[in-house]
Structures are given as structure tokens and as C-alpha cells.
Specification:
With 98 residues, the chain is α+β, with helices and mostly antiparallel strands. The protein is 26% helix and 19% strand. The protein is globular. The two termini are 17 Å apart.
Length: 98
């Protein structure tokens, strides 16, 4: 369980940077989120989320929405539809969690 010292109404996007996710391109996913900033949304390089082999993993809190196998080209859709529009991108949701 991840906790944040931020205010309760602020959101955060956690991008796993563990060894496995990093081999799958997680650093580029992190860069893509940082290149598409959203007011009041923190972008956090996360430790391992325990889902190795299914990454890069992205988790949006406090929504508790998980995305899997995220590639940098998909980040603008998550930013626009979920972070700005409030609707998770259903096609990208991690099926083990959702």
C-alpha cells in the first residue's frame, strides 16, 4: 500500500521503476508523464509494485486504478482521458486488479 503526504484531494501517478519494469521501458513511460504535466497531479517514480513481468506498471491514486504494459505513446491518452477527464482508459486496465 502506497501512502502520500500530499493533500487528500490531490492525485498521484506511480510509475514502477523496478528492474523488470525498467527493462520493459519504464523510464521512458516516466519521462512521458513528466512531459505531459497535469496540475495537482504528482508523478512519482515508484519502487516495485509486485506485478513483475506485466509492466511497465502505472497506478493512479487515490483512484486505485492500475494500468499495465504501458508504453510512452499511450501516456497522452491516460493524461487526457483519465487525469484530465476523470474516465479510466478501460482498454489499458490491468485485468488482475480490475
Amino acid at each position: 500500500h502506497f501512502s502520500s503526504s500530499a493533500e487528500n484531494n490531490s492525485r498521484s501517478v506511480w510509475i514502477c521503476q523496478s528492474r523488470t519494469c525498467s527493462r520493459q521501458g519504464a523510464a521512458r513511460v516516466l519521462q512521458a508523464f513528466r512531459a505531459n504535466p497535469v496540475p495537482d497531479v504528482m508523478v512519482i517514480a515508484s519502487p516495485c509494485m509486485g506485478q513483475c513481468g506485466n509492466g511497465p506498471m502505472v497506478r493512479v491514486l487515490p483512484d486505485d486504478v492500475w494500468y499495465w504494459r504501458v508504453c510512452p505513446e499511450e501516456v497522452p491518452a491516460i493524461v487526457k482521458r483519465h487525469l484530465q477527464g476523470g474516465e479510466p482508459v478501460k482498454a489499458m486496465l490491468y485485468p488482475i486488479v480490475h
